What we know:
The protein is of the alpha+beta class.
Amino acid sequence: MNIRAGRLDDDAILAAIDHASWSPLSDPSEHWSIERPFFGPPTGTRPQDVLVAEVGPDLVGVIKIVPATTEFGDWCINGLAVAAAFGGRGVGTALIRAACAKAGAAGGAQVWLKVLDSNARAVRLYECLGFVEVARFTSPFENRPGVDDLRMAADLPLESG
Ligand SMILES: CC(C)(COP(=O)(O)OP(=O)(O)OC[C@H]1O[C@@H](n2cnc3c(N)ncnc32)[C@H](O)[C@@H]1OP(=O)(O)O)[C@@H](O)C(=O)NCCC(=O)NCCS
């Protein structure tokens, strides 16, 4: 597996991975159009904000990490998706580790993120990497009754796995 910085010409494949990764269990908003570009004004995502994972010739995953200071930390992971065909092989783990290393190298002290408690696979993955729940907003979404909106955070550097 190779992790590298995102490029504008990754747009179409990243948009497809992002679109396919949507689930009501993981996203409180409605499903976006397959036509939505990954980079640019609709998403506010820039190539320099993302790292991508390649397995052989295939681009298989993406993570977005940006400086964002709140009470939870100073860098934020606000996008993570792995192509389903490449799930369970450690791609998500490698992307989170690389993103946290990037934040740490830039002087970051703590990375935080949002995750729904219905997204059990993601929550478990973050916990395995040392993230802990730092806030819970109980059932805040009308269209996702019973689902809590969590904030999780980890101190940098992550513990080595
Ligand atoms: C959540 C998500 C990013 C996980 O990506 P992934 O690449 O499957 O993650 P990993 O492979 O690193 O870890 C997932 C599981 O595979 C296991 N695993 C890791 N490396 C492995 C390997 N080499 N071989 C087999 N299994 C492995 C992990 O232990 C973990 O097991 P668990 O689910 O029982 O805890 C992916 O499922 C996804 O894109 N989901 C939809 C979007 C989403 O929910 N994003 C997060 C929003 S907050």
